[in-house]
Amino acid sequence: MFDPRPLVDIATAIGREAGALVQRMRASAVVSFDTKSTSTDVVTAADRASEQLVRTRLSELRPGEPVLGEEEGGPGDGAAVEGLTWVVDPIDGTVNYLYGIPWYSVSIAAQLDGESVAGAVVEPATGRVWTAARGYGSYLDGAPLRVSATTDLSLSLLGYGFAYRPERRQRQADAWARMSTRVRDLRRAGAASLDLCSVAAGRLDAYTEHGLGRWDWAAGALIAAEAGAVVRLPGSSPELGEDATFAAAPGIADALYGALSESGFGEV
């Protein structure tokens, strides 16, 4: 029987090493940086160095297994592929990293036939490590995680994210404005992997965002699901949009899904 737990150990060890590199590089990495899809979508030298380190270590520890990374791409160009593939976000929350906001991570997941089976999300600024193996639960520094027990959407705290393109960001802002009267409050933190981990820990009651790459959610979504969250990945929620990621405590999942649909999330 396949046991994914050894893959968690590998992801954790490599993630810690990449996180230490990212921390060491920050002073120099933020001096000069490039942009990708828009002028607000940044990539630093540390993003590239972190991904190269992860690829090198994986080639040593798991030779022959393909790697999909945010900066260098890989098999399937972000789509699901057969077999075991490693999915890497070398710095999730690069804008936070750029500004010195300590809410960013190194995210590493192992996927089998396109589904996450093991993952680690490392916070370089704090040293905290979030982990999960499919069927074995999720943990923060070894302590088990569980989603919140909330059942009242109106008293729920929701996390969200914005796209980089201004025209889509405006549509998202309009939808979130309609949602704002239906919940306790909203939080925009800027790192999808850690937002998903926050759902796992009950720090957020739910989180949803459009336009995430596989590297953004591969580890965090598994951590949330193993903590008991209802998770819907891109392509599974047409009412919210084909590229929507959704994670919620089970007590509010249905109500939230309906409220988001009514608020126009499927049209953003």
Automatic annotation (TrEMBL):
Reaction(s) catalysed by this chain's protein? a myo-inositol phosphate + H2O = myo-inositol + phosphate
Enzyme Commission number: 3.1.3.25
- Give an example GO molecular function: hydrolase activity
Q: Which Pfam families match?
A: Inositol_P
Going by the entry's taxonomy, the superkingdom of the source organism is recorded as Bacteria
Requisite cofactors: Mg(2+)
Q: Which family does it belong to?
A: Belongs to the inositol monophosphatase superfamily.
Matching entries from PANTHER family are given as:
INOSITOL MONOPHOSPHATASE (PTHR20854), INOSITOL-1-MONOPHOSPHATASE-RELATED (PTHR20854:SF4)
Give the protein's recorded name: Inositol-1-monophosphatase
Could you tell me which species this protein originates from? Lentzea sokolovensis
